[in-house]
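Notebook B, p. 112. Complex prediction, attempt 2.
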Amino acid sequence: MSSGVVSTVSPAWRDPAWNGRLTWFLLGLLLLWPLLTLTEFRPWVLFAEGSREPTLRFLSAFIPPEMGLDFLWLVARETWRTVAIATAGIALALVIALPATLLSTRVLSLSALSGRMSPLGFALRQVLRFVLIALRSIPELIWALIFVRVVGLGPTAGVLAIALTYGGMLGKVYGEILESGEAQATTTLLQNGSGRLQAFFYGLLPQNAAELTSYTVYRWECAIRSSVVLGFVGAGGLGQLMDNSMKMFAGGEVATMLLVFIALVALADRTSAWLRKVLG
Amino acid sequence: MNLELLDIEARHPAARQGAPAALRKFSLSIAAGEQVAVIGPSGAGKTSLLQVAAAALKPGFGQVSLGGDNPWALSGSALQRLRGRLFLAPQTPPLPPRQRVITSVLAGRLPAISLWESLRSLFYPTDIEGAYRALAHFDLGEKLFDRVDRLSGGERQRVGLARALLSPASLWLIDEPLSALDPTRSQQAITQILGLAGERGVTVLATLHQVDMALAHFPRIVGLREGQLAFDLPRGSVTQAHLQKLYAHHEDELNGAAPGGIEEPAPPPLVVMSCR
C-alpha cells in the first residue's frame, strides 16, 4: 500500500503564515533603517581608534573609588539632600494632586449619581484634567531649568520641578485608579445621603487605599532617581555633586557616587516593596 | 416616612436602546410604618423599583413622593438631605474589602454627623457600643474589629443590614437581604430587621426571592412581573393561583431555588506603573 504516499511536498503542507511573516519582517526593516540613520546610530564609534583611549582613561580613573572621609561625608549629606528633595517634591505634588483628584473624580459626582453629570461639574472636571495633563507633559528637567532661572541654583528649584510634574502625574493616575475600582461602596453611601467627602473617606479611599499608596511610593522612588538628574542642571543634591566631579574628570569620585546611587535606588526599591506589602 | 409612586416608567441608564422599561405604569403607595415585600421572578424590575423609591434612579415618567416631597424638584443639597432620611441596602453588600467591620457599620451614620465628626471617627471610632449592639442583633458582635474581607459572604450581608440600624433613616429599602444566608440565618435576620423597624416606626420595602419568607413575615405583599404591578394584597389574600401566575415560566424560582449568592469581591485592578 505504498502508492498513496507522495514523495514531493504537497502545497497544502507549506506553512501558510510564512508569506505574511516575511512581508512584515521586510516592511519593518524598511521602516526602521531610516530611523537608525536619522538618529546617527553608529555604535562602532565607541571602539574607534580616537575615542578608545580617552574612554579607557576615564573609566580607569573610576578605580579605586574615592573613599576619603571628608568626601564620604559630603556625599552622605548630598544623598540625604536628594532624598529630601524627592520627598518634599512628592509632598507638594500631593497638595496639587489630591484636591484636583477629589474635584475631578466622576465617582464622587452627585449629579452623575442619577443620570448625566451637571454641565458645570463636567466643565470643571475637563478644565482640571487639562491642567493636570499640561503639568505632567512638561518634563521635570524643563521645569527645573525654568526654576533655576527664577529661584536660583539649589534644591528649591528641584523641589518645585518635581512638585509640578509629579502633581500632574499623580492627579491623573489617582483619578484613573479611583474610577477603575469598584464604585459600589461609594455610590451607595452617596445614595444614602452622605456628603461627597464623607463618601470619599468611608467608601472610595478604603476601597482603593492600597493601589493609591503603592503608586505614590513607586512615584517617590522615581522622584529620587529624577532628583539626581535634576542636580545636573543645578537643582542641588547628589546630581550637582556628580556633575562637578564629572567636569573635573574625577573618576574616583564619580564611581563612589554611582555606587551610593545604586545603593540608594535599591534601598528605595526595598522600602517601597515593603511598604506596599504592609499596606496591601 | 411614607412613599408614593404614581404611573412610574423607569429604565436603567445603562439599558440598551429600545429595551422595554424596567418599570411601566407602576403605582404604589406605602404608609409610614408599613412593611411591604416585593416578590416576582428575576428581571421583573424589583431592584429598579427600589432605586426609584430611593431617589437613586430618576424615572422617565411619573411622580415620586417621599415623605411628601418630590425628590426631583428639590435642590441638590435638599435632595441629599432627603436621601439621608432613607436607607438603600443593595443586594451585594457595599463594603470596601479592606475596611474594618466597625467602620463599615458606623458609615450608616454618616448622613447624621458632620464631616469633622466622621473624620474623627476614622481615627478612633466614636460609637463602639452602638456598632457592637447593631452587630449583636445579627450575631456578629465578636467580628467588630475584623476586616470585611475576612468575613464570609453571609456575614458581609448581615454587616450590610446592621448598617441600617445606625442610619438616621425612616425608610429602609432592602434588596434581597437573604440571598447569601442559610434558612436559619434568614429567619433570624428577617425577624430582627422587621422587629427593629417596628420598634422605631421605620417603613420597610424589601425585595425577596424567598416567597415563603415573604408570606411568613410581611403583612403586605406586592407582586411584580415584567415591570408591572401583578398584585398588591395583604398576605392572607395571596393565593397559590396568584403565585402560579406571577411565576409562570419561572416555576423553579417559586419552588425555592436559591438565586445566585453574593459573588466574592473582584481582585483589585492592576495599577499601570508607567513613568508618565
